[in-house]
Design a protein that fits this description.
This protein is α/β, with parallel strands linked by helices and about 290 residues long. Helices cover about 30% and strands about 30% of the residues. Strands 2-3-1-4-11-5 form a six-stranded mixed beta sheet, with helices on both faces. The structure holds adenosine-5'-triphosphate and magnesium ion (MG). Adenosine-5'-triphosphate (ATP) binds next to helix 2, helix 3 and strand 9.
Length: about 290
């Protein structure tokens, strides 16, 4: 049997589930090279002292807290639900979902207050209980392990507190969202010792890589053509992370302008550029690594 190298960092990720593909993608974008496959229990990285361990997401918090692994990637929702002694290091900007309260479409419940005295089915009892307690609303929780959507139809509960990302499963089951408890995304967590002792240097190196992927994600590269006389105007529109690169085109009196633009003000910038007279605007993602 293969055993894990002890001095290497260990990172636990979900073996098979909603976070798996995006997590593998994220790790590869951060430049880590490894083989993965459905039947692998762990992968050793070729170019970083890291072992990626594949487990059920329910086990990750405990593995990290107890030091069986140094790091883990889980949905923040699990951190809210199970209080564990781990340190959250980074929000990873994928795996977005929300814990919401949903009711049957034709339910006569109008507000959260109307749930007073009612039964709520959930897989997230701690978060749900805390939510209602804060509002001073008394509900009875029915804990169900999966397929919560069926609970109202079965008459088991008047509402469900469930995770959703697009709401499509809810709609498919004739449920509608009454309110949101919290938003969640994938997060990197660490064992409390791992971020202090000899492994800290490696953890920091890995975080630097992850941050690189995260910042590249927030920017886009744009290229456009414009006549010389518009350069000054266009420069004003591009909020300067980097001053734009300007190079002459074969067409006399025209230039090609390229720059990096922050994603949150991106569409606004494009609109302004069009109005300033730029043409042939090309948008490229910034790849990391
Ligand atoms: P496992 O077999 O590993 O125990 P699971 O069935 O408990 O898997 P998944 O349903 O794969 O877990 O969800 C893993 C995580 O994905 C959730 O904890 C949550 O953070 C995130 N997630 C993103 N979108 C959704 C969604 N629509 N519904 C549920 N979870 C979501
Ligand atoms: Mg699970």
């Amino acid at each position: 049997m293969k055993v894990l190298k002890d001095r290497n960092l260990r990172l636990a990720i979900q073996k098979q589930g909603r976070l798996t593909d995006e997590t593998l993608d994220f790790l590869r974008k951060s430049g880590l090279e490894f083989e993965s496959g459905r039947f692998k229990l762990f992968s050793s990285c070729r170019n970083f002292p890291l072992e990626i361990v594949y487990v059920r997401d329910d086990d990750i918090l405990e593995f990290v807290a107890s030091g069986i692994v140094d790091l883990g990637i889980i949905g923040q929702n699990l951190l809210y639900e199970q209080k564990a002694k781990v340190k959250k290091l980074l929000n990873l900007r994928y795996g977005f979902c929300s814990l919401i309260i949903a009711i049957p479409k034709e339910s006569n419940i109008k507000s959260v207050e109307d749930l007073n005295g009612k039964k709520i089915a959930t897989t997230y009892p701690v978060s749900t209980k805390a939510f209602f307690k804060k509002l001073n609303i008394k509900v009875r929780l029915v804990q169900i392990a999966g397929s919560l959507e069926i609970a109202p139809a079965l008459g088991v509960a008047s509402a469900v507190a469930d995770l959703t990302s697009t709401g499509s499963t809810l709609a498919l089951n004739d449920l509608r969202i009454l309110t949101k408890i919290y938003d969640s995304e994938a997060v990197l967590i660490a064992n409390l010792e791992a971020v202090k002792n000899g492994k800290k240097i490696l953890v920091d190196k890995l975080i630097t890589r992850f941050k690189g992927v995260l910042s590249a994600k927030n920017y886009k590269y744009i290229m456009m053509n414009a006549p010389n006389k518009l350069i000054a105007k266009i420069k004003k529109v591009i909020p300067g992370l980097k001053s734009p690169t300007i190079s002459p085109l074969a067409k006399a009196g025209w230039v090609s302008i390229s720059s990096v633009v922050k994603e949150d003000i991106f569409w606004e910038t494009i609109e302004k550029l069009k109005k300033s007279g730029a043409s042939g605007i090309l948008v490229l993602p910034i790849e990391n690594g």
